[in-house]
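pinging the channel bc i need a second pair of eyes. not urgent but kinda urgent?? the chain im working w is below, pasted from the shared doc
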Amino acid sequence: MTIVKSSLIIASVLTLSACAIFDNRSAERRAEEAADKAGRITMVLGEPELEADPALAATEIVLSPARDVEAWPQAGSRPSKVVGHVNAAPALDIDWRSDAGRGSDNKSTLTAAPIASDTKVYVLDAKQTIRAFNISNGRRAWSEELDSGSRRDQIGYGGGLAIEGDVLIVASGYGFVAALDAESGSELWRQDMDAPMTGAPTIIDGRAFVSSNNNEVFAFDLETGDILWSDQAIAEPARVLGSPSAAAVEDIVVAPYSSGEVIAYLAANGRRLWSDALARPGRFTPISAINDIAARPVLASGLVFVANQSGVTLAIDGRSGSRVWAQPIGSTQAPAVAGDVVFVASVDGRLAALSASTGGVYWVQQLRRFRDEEDQKGRISYSGPIVASDRVIVISSRGELQAFSPQTGEPVGSLKLGDEIYLEPIAAQGKLFVLTDEAKLIAIR
């Protein structure tokens, strides 16, 4: 669940700070119930109006041809996290469904999107069990229950998966990083850590980069599991419950933190190259004080594209760290960069297309914000976007896939999926894969 729910009782942050996790779904439900009982309107996150630039109205958005994606081996598909325009789910029909384990409940939460090799889809469920499914028909190939090694640890929050060749890297909310055989699930190595691992691994050049609950990033040797280097940002326990990951290209790694910091490192030794801090001053809702960068940065065309939940999306020069442009649109989802266009799904239910080079706004589409629009109750969250088969696709917490024109933002299709969904879709073998909050894995052709 990588979306900020917009209602907040500030005590929730203090109560949960011991485990350094902010469960936004539960907070919203509690806040809405409390507001109803008190006869008050729940405080929600608001953003300044983002409007299309009239000067760009006649500008045609041209996507490169959709590329085939054989696998989705890590969050964001590639180390750079640039997905681009992919060929996936042209028919928008359900191909198969499979039970992928334990879904979210009041004690544990699904936070990690699936990954895929060219033959299997891998899922980490809410009880820290990994399952592998055949990508063609959804049949389960194997499962492996993760164990912290301590009987006191009943719940593991966060974590994620990545695969390189026949090695599956697991970052566990139980506080360890391990390598498993991708075909059988057998353990190859394990490195116990001092804190839960909240981020999904990013793999490049024989290294795996993983973030912890303590706002630390670690570089692991992919073959041995040895820690090559680590660095810690400003401590900030209030965070969005999700599975963020670093982005990497060539010799640079860029890591996001719950403090709102984004830091660029030299991949070989962890030397800091530059840092920035995302914040939106002058906001007067409790949730606006949380500057967590809950989604991965995206590295494209020499720029770092990054957003935080409290209301800003930035483009930063990847070498110097200088800001290139900023727009007042907050998100807990990674932006989708396709050519010179950045598509962003905001925490306030807006889908926008921005110029990657200038930040200019091509179009803004307001999506449905509440299940009950009249009374403004039951805020809807959106995961994605992904640009697939000439459509911009998002998935809603109402259990619906929605497709929009990349040129105009107008709706062009939809598909009912049923269960609540808070995790981004992935693409492989011409299909989209979605993991629902009840841990149902759905393949869409």
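so The chain has a mean pLDDT of 86. and Residues 24-38 form the longest helix (15 residues). — does that match what u expected or am i reading it wrong
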